[in-house]
Write a structure and sequence with these properties.
The protein has helices at about 10-15, 15-25, 95-110, 130-140, 160, 165, 175-190, 215-225, 265-275, and strands at about 1-5, 25-30, 40, 50-55, 75-80, 115-120, 150-155, 195, 210, 245. About 40% of the residues are buried. The protein has an eight-stranded parallel sheet. It has a two-stranded antiparallel sheet with strand order 2-3. α4 links the parallel β6 and β7. It is of the alpha/beta class. The protein starts with a strand and ends in a 22-residue tail after the last helix.
Amino acid sequence: MILSVSRRTDIPACYANWFFERLKEGFVFVQSPMSRKISRVELSADVVDGIVFWSKNPAPMLDRLHLLKEFAYYFQCTVTPYGTDIEPNVPDKRKEIIPTFVRLSDVIGAERVVWRYDPVLLNSRYDTEFHLRAFAALAKALYGHTKKCVFSFVDDYRSTGRNRGALSLLEISQEQKLELGKAFSDIASAYGMAIETCAEKIDLSKFGVGRARCVDARLLESISGRALNVKKAQGQRKLCGCAQSTDIGMYNSCNNGCLYCYANFSPALMRKNAAAHDPASPLLCGRVEDENGQTSI
């Protein structure tokens, strides 16, 4: 089993204490976002073949990475150039996020920290010229601390639809995608990075842009030195190249507040879930209780 921590919420940034407590206890309860069924997921190294962490700010985990020594793992770290108008609760990129990325890379190795410039969105403030300058500046700042960059263009999820007025999104034309894809590839190459797109229809291979496997069994095999027998992920977008994984997060629970995020589509439910979080509970938000008030499955 490959563990995803998490596509649904930023566990490293928001719920690191809970995650390490669950690791110590050896299991977690996960509620299906579709059926609402609750399942028990074992977290021992005998069961977990690898862990993929997704985060905009892994700082709360940095001093406890030694607790992961039994596991093969890597981080997908998102570093974008957006301000608090788009990512209201993400710390300052220059003062906090980039130094955290660099420190993480220094501890676990550049090949185990994937840079996500994701998503690319356009409006009157963040136009193509802005992205060309910003991508180059970030690539320079992260030079030597990552081997790969993954990017994608913004998708029209429920959240982006609800926030369309605040985002003031402009349509990204085919020509703009080609322009940005070529420029990003040239810049990434100059800083020693491979570059890939995440689940994008557009083919940018002529510019040296590959197609990402964000949950990457090959990378976990390289880290662990063991072959993995895993299938392609089911239930993801058609062009997703990820391996099958088990996600232990919960939608509508991330405090980053990013206006484009697909995982937070109800601010009221997000606040309710976050308020119900108990670091001692096997469930990320709330508790599982039987008629006697005891935690059960």
